[in-house]
Amino acid sequence: MSDKKHLIVVGNGPVGHQFLESIAASGKAGDYHITVIGEEPRHAYDRVHLTAWFETREAASLNMVADGFYEEHQITAIANEKVEGINRADKIISTDKGNTYQYDTLVLATGSFPFVPPVPGHERDNCFVYRTIEDLEAITAASKDAKVGAVIGGGLLGLEAAKAIKDLGLETHVIEFAPRLMAVQVDDGGGALLRKKIEDLGVKVHTQKNTQNIGDGETAKHKLSFADGAELETDILVFSAGIRPQDALARQSELEIGERGGIVINDNCQTSDPDIYAIGECALWGGRIYGLIAPGWDMARAAADHVLGGAEGKTFTGADMSTKLKLMGVDVASIGDAHANTPGAKCYTFIDEQAEVYKKIVVSESGEHLLGAVLVGDAEDYGNLLQFALNKITLPEHPEAMILPNLDGSASVGLGVDALPDTAQICSCNNVSKGDLCAAVQGGATTVGDLKACTKAATTCGGCTALVGQVLNAELTKLGVEVNTDICEHFPYTRQEIYHLVRVGQIKSFEQLLEKHGKGHGCDICKPAAASILASCWNDYILQPEHAGLQDTNDRMLANMQKNGTYSVVPRMAGGEVTPDGLIAVGTVAKKYNLYTKITGGQRIDLFGATLDQLPLIWKELIDAGFETGHAYGKSLRTVKSCVGSTWCRYGVQDSVGAAIDIENRYKGLRSPHKLKMAVSGCTRECAEAQSKDVGVIATEKGWNLYVCGNGGMKPRHADLFASDIDTETLIKYVDRFLMFYVRTADRLQRTSVWLDNLEGGLDYLKKVIIEDSLGIAAELEAEMALVIDNYQCEWKTTIENEERVKQFRSFVNVDGGDKDIVFVQERGQIRPATEEEKARNEDLIAVA
Amino acid sequence: MSWTTICSLSDINPNAGVCALLGEEQVAIFKVNGQIYAIGNKDPFSNANVLSRGIVGSLNDTLAVASPLYKQHFNLETGICLEDETVSVPCYQVRTEGDLIQIAI
Ligand code: SRM
Ligand SMILES: Cc1cc2nc3c(=O)[nH]c(=O)nc-3n(C[C@H](O)[C@H](O)[C@H](O)COP(=O)(O)OP(=O)(O)OC[C@H]3O[C@@H](n4cnc5c(N)ncnc54)[C@H](O)[C@@H]3O)c2cc1C
Ligand code: SF4
Ligand code: FES
Predict the structure, then answer these.
(1) What is the count of structural domains for chain B?
(2) What keywords are assigned to this protein (chain B) (predicted)?
(3) CA-based end-to-end distance of chain A
(4) Are A103 and A147 found together in one domain?
């Protein structure tokens, strides 16, 4: 026998697991024989995101234990075994399997169990709780033969359960005893609005209902009878009426227990027996049970530190109970003293019935500190307000400005994150401080996605996401990195905000925009961005004289400038398809103007070396031969790559070329925050590399699989599967909405990949907006796209037909002729720009054709 | 010093530039809020004649054009590069006579 001590953890939930991770992180796991015993059939999983199980219906997606974690730290993990007794005198625990284990130190992390009110009938079939993966499996199975579901309890969890049942396709009811939903966190005003939002999800809400009996129903399985005489029939019933600490073991072994349950602990998380610790939802500290994950994790860290000798002096001294509901489309948050119970507290309330927003802040008597807040309909300020409350930051003179909308475009009164100390905890779920985030940014993180990956911040409840973004931007700015919020010194707005200003204000020119919302003369950052926004809003011909000066030369000259001041010419070859006659025409033009010819990575032909004055001449010939501009210059659709597909390929299951051509012709000309690339493959072999595109389509036996937000380039990203086996009509509908939503909301020069990685709610949110129309904007997006498509014009055709415009392509304003400084040399049978040495040597130089 | 007529005001789009050829010299002429400015057209960073095709605007209240190739800015009144003051392009005197733009050479 070794003399290592035995450390046993009872309960393998998120908190028990955090305890093990803390021990492992200390590097001292090897000093102990560690055993964790859990009653559930699997090891620790992410209960906070339990509802996400419905997305994949696979337990593995919630797993919290990293591969090889137990092996690496020599932890014995036992599942499916319940600890039934503690013999404190001999330090032995015993289990339902008849096993006994010796401990030196015992940690109780047994969590809590759902409270089921003792209503007659509560033990009937098809009555569930909402706590474990098995509960969800059982609810899902029962839902197959059910039409109606009801949840008893309208708190945070009850609402989450109700939404899940609704999503299973059942008519759904929430029954609440109190006069409003989320009674603990939200006040009357917020409750009324919250109710409306929940009802908008299609869930029926019944408040002030005291359930007195559950019996047989007539039209459904059960009938609920309420104290006021009302009745409700339902097939499935879920109890979500609060939690109770799982303290049975502690009671049985006579540890000190709170009056209303819970294992009493001190600041080190020790129970009344110093060799036994209790952490998480089973523990009672300061007379209180903390039913949230963050306090549980704090306890786990404190207990681990103490078990290891207290080197870091971590203790648990209470926690904040502010929360944010994580229901899609329903923004609700509550901070601190939401009900203004503190003597002398003053409230400010803002209600916008139109936008369905309710905000209240509770301020101390002196007006100096924020005590609490309730936000419904718009919880964007949650992070900011929470920091004010937690860090006791002095409020501005008019605290109400913090919840009032800023209409005139003045900067919103937030807390500059600069005001926060490095120790300020930004992500309470994962205990990530401002200092941790700054260190990660200094270490190379440049997006919220990066920060999530390397610090875990914003990966649990998501409540801190906005604030994490602010810290990121502030730190990037300090490091001198250009931050994508204020577009430039002339406009204190993001691209997205400018888009809205333009659209809502019906702004049609840069001058108008500058006058109303900006200052100075504009610059090479805001002008092209405004031009692109004006173009995607009104799709006005790009070369209108008043727009010309806004454009980058590439957009202005409708061609990409090369290193020697010449331009490239890229005719559109939709789907990469081109006829022999088309090829000959392109070849003839290339030969005539002595242009360098190359097949691009986007399945078409690029002609290089054209001077400014040659551009209209070259395009005239190409257009006469039936070609259109390929928009190789714009922030717009480049190519839709295709594979040859079912027409020729023996494996193809759909006409991928035909589809690619249709898609390319549909979206050509659309102006967007960055360039767009798409592809269509004829079967899963994926020869068109669709999964590396902003929009990727892969043929299936039944239709198409749609992928979105892929990227090649500097930081490749695999596209995400967005919808499967959809027909062509649905495909086009989704792509219309997707593109327009991106155009509306992305930042300047943000590819769809980066946009998605920064989109709060991620892919699921995007699916809800696009597929389920959760924001109710689908019709609008489609209409905007229809407008863009209707207004399509080949910019080169419009240009060469207008003499005034053609004039802009003269090399010189005062004389005819081209730039004599442009010279080439011959290489591999074609021209290329001469180098400076070659120019100096002045041999074998070729002038412009 | 003599004034050479280059073009008329309406030949330049608002807040944009054109290039004029004066002997062998290429001059970039800009019209910003009705005012005319003239600097050399050759971008010293690429040796390509392209400055007239850059975007004009202001940076900290200095009027400047951004090179379309590598995006350095040049002061429209002095020709000095804002990113690197040791680099500059020539700067020309301009005036308007009625609708005509003239350059001093
Ligand atoms: C011509 C071409 C290379 C070739 O000879 O094959 C090309 C040439 C240029 N690419 Fe590209 N890219 C070309 C295909 C690609 C591809 C492959 C593809 O589209 O399948 C990629 C990777 C896929 C992707 O974008 O996700 C690609 C990734 C980039 C990037 C990096 C984008 C990113 O998100 O990281 C840039 C830089 C940028 O856009 O900021 C870029 C930028 C450029 C620019 C515009 C750089 C510039 O400002 O001068 C080049 C100018 C081309 C011109 O004068 O026409 N090019 N570029 C290809 C034109 C395709 C076409 O027919 O339109
Ligand atoms: C649907 C849902 C949504 C939630 N959303 C949020 C949220 O958004 N934010 C937030 O902060 N919190 C949220 N919570 C609460 C959060 O999940 C809990 O705070 C957290 O799970 C507590 O962890 P724990 O380890 O203390 O307890 P538990 O997760 O309950 O884990 C305890 C484990 O111990 C096992 N166990 C108990 N007794 C024994 C025994 N005698 N022998 C062996 N094993 C035993 C149990 O089976 C269980 O696996 C949510 C909870 C649910 C159910
Ligand atoms: S993707 Fe499939 S259909 Fe298309 S070329 Fe490849 S194998 Fe053929
Ligand atoms: S505070 Fe919950 S994820 Fe950061």
Answers:
(1) 1
(2) 2Fe-2S, Iron, Iron-sulfur, Metal-binding, Nitrate assimilation, Oxidoreductase
(3) 91
(4) no
* Residue A627 in domain: no
Most ligand 2 atoms within 8 A of CB, residue of A110, A159, A269 to mutate: A110
Chain A hits for B56, Cβ within 8 Å = 521, 549
Q: Cβ contacts of residue A669 below 8 Å, gap of 6+?
A: A539, A631, A636, A637, A788, A792, A793, A795
pLDDT at A352: 84
Host domain of residue A178? 127-241
Q: Does B69 touch chain A (CB under 8 A)?
A: yes
Q: Judged by CB atoms within 8 Å, which residues 352-391 of A form the interface with B?
A: none
| Run of H or E residues at A85 | strand A83-87
Name residues of chain A where pLDDT drops below 70. 1-2, 328-329, 406-416, 482-485, 539-543
Helices (H), A597-710: 615-624, 656-667
The CATH number covering residue A30 comes to 3.50.50.60
In CATH, what number is assigned to the domain containing residue B36?
A: 2.102.10.10
3-state secondary structure of A458: coil
CB contact under 8 A, B58 and A490: yes
**Ligand 4, atom 1, residue with closest C-alpha:** A427
Does the beta carbon of B21 lie under 8 angstroms from any beta carbon of chain A? yes
Residue of A nearest to B18 (CA): A813
User: What pLDDT was estimated at residue A486?
Assistant: 72
Task: Quote the DSSP letter at residue A27.
Answer: T
Residues of A in contact with B19 (CB under 8 A): 811-813
By C-alpha distance, the chain B residue nearest A839 is B47
Among A307, A341, A361, which residue terminates a domain? Answer: A307
A12 and A75 assigned to the same domain: yes
Residue A404 lies in a domain: no
Residue A348 forms part of a structural domain: no
How many whole angstroms separate alpha carbon B50 and alpha carbon A559?
Answer: 14
Model ipTM?
0.69
Q: Whole-structure pTM over 0.95, yes or no?
A: no
Chain B interface includes A18 (CB < 8 A): no
Output the average pLDDT for chain B.
92
* pLDDT at res. B84: 85
Q: Tell me how far the alpha carbon of residue A657 lies from the centroid of ligand 3, in angstroms.
A: 11
- On whether any CB of chain B is under 8 Å from the CB of A552, the answer is yes
Taking the CA of A638 as reference, the closest ligand is 1
Q: Find the CATH number of the domain harbouring A671.
A: 3.30.413.10
- Cβ contacts (< 8 Å) between B55 and chain A: which residues? 523-524, 527-528, 549-552
- Chain A partners of B20 at a C-beta cutoff of 8 Å? 812-814
A191 with A75, same domain? no
How many domains does chain A fold into?
4
Q: Establish if A525 belongs to a structural domain.
A: yes
Enumerate the known binding-site residues of A for [4Fe-4S] cluster.
643, 649, 683, 687
Same domain, A146 and A22: no
A213 & A249 share domain: no
The DSSP line for B20-48 is EEETTEEEEEEEETTEEEEEESEETTTTE
Cβ of A819 within 8 Å of Cβ of B49? The answer is yes
Domain that holds residue B99: 3-104
**Final residue of a domain: which of A526, A551, A576?**
A551
A657 with A780, same domain: the answer is: yes
Statement to judge: residues A650 and A775 lie in one domain: yes
DSSP A600: -
pLDDT, tens digit only, all 105 positions of chain B:
789 999 999 999 888 999 999 998 999 999 998 899 999 999 999 999 999 999 999 988 899 999 998 888 999 999 999 888 899 999 999 999 989 999 997
Q: Does residue A553 belong to the interface with chain B, where contact is any CB pair within 8 Å? A: yes
- Take residue A750 and report the two structure tokens written for it: 């943000």
A87 and A21 fall within a common domain: yes
Strand partners of residue A358: A351, A376
Nearest Cα neighbor of A659 from A728, A582, A739, A705 is: A728
* DSSP annotation string for A314-352: ---------EEEEETTEEEEEEESTT--STT-EEEEEEE
